[in-house]
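FORM 7B: Structural annotation worksheet

SECTION A. Query
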Amino acid sequence: NNTDYTNAKDKYNNTIKGGMTKLKTTINGKLNDIKNLEKALKDLNNALEQEKVLDGEIANLQNEVESINKEIEKLNEKIAGFGTDIESLDKEIAKFGITLEALDNEIASLKTEIADTKDAINKMPRPEYKEALKKQLAKLEAQLAEKEPKREELNNFVTTKNELQAALNKRNKWKAKGEETIAQIKTKQGELPTLKDNADIYVTTIN
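SECTION B. Predicted structure
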């Protein structure tokens, strides 16, 4: 009859309403879980991306260290090729008892004096004075002949010292850069365990 139908209809309607309410409650209860899962997935992805970037940076720095070591090896060969050291060169230079600049000044002064003496000889009318000037010229030219080879030898030592010092300075710069790069590698390698630990936590959360 109509009463039974109405009761049955109400029962079904109430069941549907109850089910919907329960479903909403269940969904609402899971929303936080879904949000947490979504966050964990996002965090894991970020951690993996950071790890990938860090691995790339470390690889680049390691390549840089290899390049630096090659430069240092080249300089080591160059330095060894000199067959001497700064201290030995300084001792050789000290034996001359004069700086290259001072010797250059002496040579320049002698050349000027020689030129002036030659000019005076050409202009001197009296033979006895001309002869005295020629003797003076011979002395000046002998001094110049002695100083010029000395200057060349000293210059070789000074040039060698300067080139050797430049190579040593360059090698020291590369060594400092290498040490700095290695320190950067260690710092970045120290960041990796934290990223891996975080990734493991996110994986646990997801599972």
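SECTION C. Observations
The two ends are 55 Å apart (CA to CA). The first helix runs from residue 2 to 81.

SECTION D. Sign-off
Analyst initials: ____
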